[in-house]
Design a protein that fits this description.
Subcellular location: Nucleus
Number of helices: 9
Main location: nucleus
Distance between the termini: 36 Å
Function: Decapping enzyme for NAD-capped RNAs: specifically hydrolyzes the nicotinamide adenine dinucleotide (NAD) cap from a subset of RNAs by removing the entire NAD moiety from the 5'-end of an NAD-capped RNA.
Helix content: 25-40%
Order of helices and strands: EEEEHEHEEHEHEEEEHEEHHEEHH
Structural class: alpha+beta
EC number: 3.6.1.-
Family: Belongs to the DXO/Dom3Z family.
Shape: globular
Number of strands: 16
Length: 384
């Protein structure tokens, strides 16, 4: 009989014990969706002195030339293949399987945390969960293609302004390696979101060990060669300027969401750009991830939100590990995980399901290379 189970969003765990995140590897994703393991060619460096604000930069400049890879619905933007290739490279180096219970992206875990704490209509949860080789691999099943709303719409301008802010404030090489001409021409640079740098992090809560992949916006200061660089990374965000109490409350909710993103993988620095009603960049402010729970204490709605998020994070991971059988062999069992009303619904995918073959036998979730690697590794272990 197929497995079905529910977890109600009121559930909370007694544990708040978090493991210190550690960077295990990284990869660069190219604009044509190629994955370059242990390659930092897409890593950017933050550089934006206060004097740049005097230029009154328009954050909608160049919007009609925006190269928006997310608009291509034919590309699987949530593919795990780059993350799995990085894990495989780590395992080849260590000559053993990585110790982990759950493997997924930070964005997936952020969705799962947010669905219990925010209006669910803003956090659509539609996931595939695969049980394979004693581990659970979770992939977003949502189709991402960005709808074309027109470059003049407020939503699209705000969407674009975030990528424009990243382009304005970062360099493809460190400041010392960047020609002056490149520095001064950043406001005219064509904005693109196709290339990414992704860190792969080992972390955990309670008894659950997780491997999370997370896109990194930039290095704030410098990168250490051959070292864990989590302490050097920064998250970049752009938001409407805060002029009223209502604006402050809205921004605090955004800050909480950003805190969830950053605490999950141990990114300690958040940099916000603030735009006015005409999308002119007016100010830039830096926040420490560790200090945000204190900053939110004065907001009645968010006083205990950070602690509540951690307790739900613990409850969800405990439930998932207790509910799904994890066989030691390389047999694949697949499930859907969706949010319905006031609970998460887990349902086993049967062979009659239209997605079954692609998930279990194909490469919708696991790449053939990774499946073969794990099969070979298990055979090697059993013979040794």
């Amino acid at each position: 009989m197929p497995l079905n189970a529910n977890l109600f969003i009121k559930k909370r765990s007694g544990t708040t014990a978090l493991k210190q995140p550690k960077e295990l590897g990284y990869y660069s994703k190219t604009a044509d969706n190629q994955f370059l393991v242990q390659d930092d060619s897409n890593l950017c460096y933050y550089y934006f002195p206060d004097s740049c604000l005097e230029r009154n930069i328009d954050l909608t400049g160049g919007i009609k030339k925006f190269r928006d890879s997310m608009a291509d619905s034919n590309v699987d933007h949530s593919t795990l293949h780059g993350l799995l290739s990085t894990i495989q490279k780590y395992e080849e180096r260590k000559e053993k399987k990585i110790k982990a219970d759950i493997i997924t992206f930070r964005g997936v875990m952020r969705k799962l945390i947010s669905c219990a704490l925010e209006n669910p209509k803003y956090n659509k949860v539609s996931l595939y969960v695969v049980s394979f080789n004693e581990q659970l691999i979770i992939k977003d099943a949502t189709k991402v293609g960005q709808p074309s709303t027109g470059t003049d719409s407020i939503d699209y301008r705000n969407y674009y302004s975030g990528y424009k802010f990243e382009t304005l404030t970062t360099l493809s090489k460190s400041f010392s390696e960047t020609p002056r001409q490149v520095l001064e021409s950043r406001p005219k640079k064509i904005v693109s979101n196709g290339e990414q740098f992704v860190t792969v992090v080992r972390t955990g809560i309670g008894k659950c060990k997780l491997i999370l992949g997370a896109e990194v916006d930039c290095v704030f200061d410098f990168k250490e060669v051959g070292s864990d660089n989590l302490k050097h990374y920064a998250e970049l965000k752009c938001s409407k300027a805060v002029n009223t109490v209502a604006d402050a409350r809205t921004f605090e909710l955004k800050l909480f969401k950003t805190w969830v993103q950053c605490f999950l993988v141990g990114i300690n620095r958040i940099i916000y750009g603030f735009r006015d009603e005409n999308c002119i960049l007016k100010s830039v402010e830096e926040f420490s991830t560790q200090e945000i729970p204190v900053l939110l204490k004065n907001n009645p709605r968010l006083t205990n939100a950070c602690l509540d998020a951690i307790k739900w994070y613990g409850a969800f991971t405990e439930w998932l590990l207790d509910t799904i059988p994890r066989e030691s062999n390389t047999k694949i069992t697949a499930y859907t995980l969706e949010f319905e009303h006031n609970h998460l619904k887990l349902s086993e995918i049967e062979p009659s399901h239209p997605e079954y073959d692609g998930i279990v036998n194909g490469e919708v979730v696991l790449s053939e290379t990774f499946k073969q690697w794990r099969t070979n590794l298990q055979t090697k272990d059993s013979n040794s």
